[in-house]
Structure of Diaminopimelate epimerase:
Amino acid sequence: MVPFRKMHGLGNDFVVLDARAGDLDLTPDRIVGIADRHFGVGCDQFIVMEPGTRGADVFMRIYNPDGSEGGACGNATRCIASLVAGESGADRVVVRTISGDLPVERLPDGLWRADMGAPRLAWQEVPLARETDTLHLPIGLGPVSDPAACSMGNPHATFFVPDIEAVDVASLGPTLERDAIFPDRANIGFAQVMGPEWIRLRMWERGAGMTLACGSGACATLVNAVRRGLAGRRARVSMERGDLVIEWREADGHVLMTGPVATAFTGTLDLGAFGP
Ligand SMILES: N[C@@H](CCC[C@H](N)C(=O)O)C(=O)O
């Protein structure tokens, strides 16, 4: 039996397992089974905490419910940082991912701010399948077209739309995620700029589907909005169940994401029940 924790950031929810003391014998079948909302615990991402080494307090491995591995998860970064900080009493921890080290700090108001690093803006870095201006991808579907793309450690495309409520995210998302221009698939954001400091965002996540929030998606949206001249470098990004504050810092080009963390419940899992 293995203990787990169910956490979320604005409803973007995670099953968190702690493998820092030793391997947990997780297999693709087990990860997909536990992440399933009908046959398992259910989550948007399956997170495994592994030992941190050489300057990192913890290594965070990120799986989507389809079993694919992700390079970034902003909401989980805050959650995992809060867990590790809670153990040591520190106010600042470094969360390592396959895409890089992310320093996270606890703010006096109880929110957590993660330095998500610098966005990657070149077409090869997103990545895209061929040389393309990442500010204007030549793709579209139904009423949406002309997205901007960047990587926040994972690939994102943002469609700017005049009315976010009118977008059928569930029907557009699956096709756009797998457009041939995205060799690794992509997370798809639909954003309505309400003003220079306020953006509304709805997400279709690669390997996960519609989610209530996406931290890296909020970062990518602000970055793409700034590049398009649609927003200032600091804005509130409102998703289905709450807001993140995102700042694309001028001094070093890093993107700062501020938001809450929460634990919904804890429990134990019989890993063998989910496959060999
Ligand atoms: N929900 C996350 C992003 C999760 C990873 C994504 N589905 C991918 O495959 O890149 C966030 O809060 O950033």
Remarks:
- The mean pLDDT is 97.
- Residues 74-88 form the longest helix (15 residues).
- The pocket of LBFN2T5F is lined by residues 12, 44-45, 62, 64, 70, 72-75, 154, 187, 205-208, 211, 214-217 (CB under 6 Å).
- The domain at 140-253 is CATH 3.10.310.10 (Diaminopimelate Epimerase; Chain A, domain 1).
